[in-house]
Amino acid sequence: MKTGFSETPAPFVSASQTARFDTENWAESNMFCPNCGCSTVARYPANRPVADFYCGQCGDQYELKSQSSAFGRKVADGAYFTKIERLASDTSPNLILLQYSREHRRVENLTVVPRYFFVPQAIERRPPLRSTARRAGWVGSNILLDRIPLSGRIAVVQSGLVRDRREILDEWNRLRFIEERHGEARGWLLEVMRCVQMIGRSDFALADVYRFERELSANFPRNNNVRPKIRQQLQVLRDGGYLEFLGNGRYRLC
After folding, report:
1. Is residue 115 within 8 Å of residue 87, measured between CB atoms?
2. Are 32 and 112 in contact (CB under 8 A)?
3. What is the DSSP letter of 254?
4. Are 210 and 227 in contact (CB under 8 A)?
């Protein structure tokens, strides 16, 4: 994988159009499929809702978001209702977050997020466009990156350096057990993963996770048994190889 953009000049004057040309061409020429390891991904025709690329081998889809600055806590996305509909059908694309350098015309950082990390809690509904807008009433969305556990943000390029492909595939495969959960069950699992992440230690106690009880109760108001639900999710994470149970209510991140 090369990090530099093609030397072929973009046929645009606009900086945004040039960046889109460079990053999409780069992804088509350099990006591989972390789901199956296929060495290339193909580009969809322009203006396809939600997805930009797909893998010809396993069929997984990818949405590309690129910008010159570091990504913050949220990323602007497409139509809200289209996004939620695809989440419900479990056909949401994987996400590619590409940060590039205009000066050096290269990829600086690139992260991929598996599609099963996207649940309704990670999608924010934006206000409808005003009546004076060209698409009046259209409702967009934001992807809330801070609602996605760090383990679900897999680095491919870091500070201009490309990581070993085998490490990336191993990280991706390690998380596949999450795909077996659906709907609210997946939402619970990811929220508990995020809470474990916020503890900030590899070794932690059940009591540390219980400190997030109020927040989890607010996120899942229909559930009146939050503590048993926390214990259930920790067991799923243990069975999936994400956690090790040490006994006496203590766990360790694997």
Report:
1. no
2. no
3. -
4. yes
Strands 140-144 and 203-205: unpaired
Place of tokens 């992804």: 27
Q: CA-to-CA distance for 83 and 92, rounded, in angstroms?
A: 7
Quick one: which of 125, 123, 102 has its CA closest to 190?
123
Q: Centre a 10 Å sphere on the Cβ of residue 207 and count the other Cβ atoms it contains.
A: 9
**Chain position carrying tokens 């990006």:** 31
Residues 150-204 pLDDT 10s: 999 999 999 999 999 999 999 999 999 999 999 999 999 999 999 999 999 999 9
Task: Please determine, for residue 245, whether its predicted confidence score (pLDDT) is greater than 90.
Answer: yes
Measured between alpha carbons, how far is 223 from 229 in angstroms, rounded to an integer?
A: 9
pLDDT interval class at 47 (50, 70, 90): low
Is the four-CA dihedral 227, 228, 234, 237 of positive or negative sign?
A: negative
The DSSP symbol for 87 reads: H
Side chain identity, residue 129? L
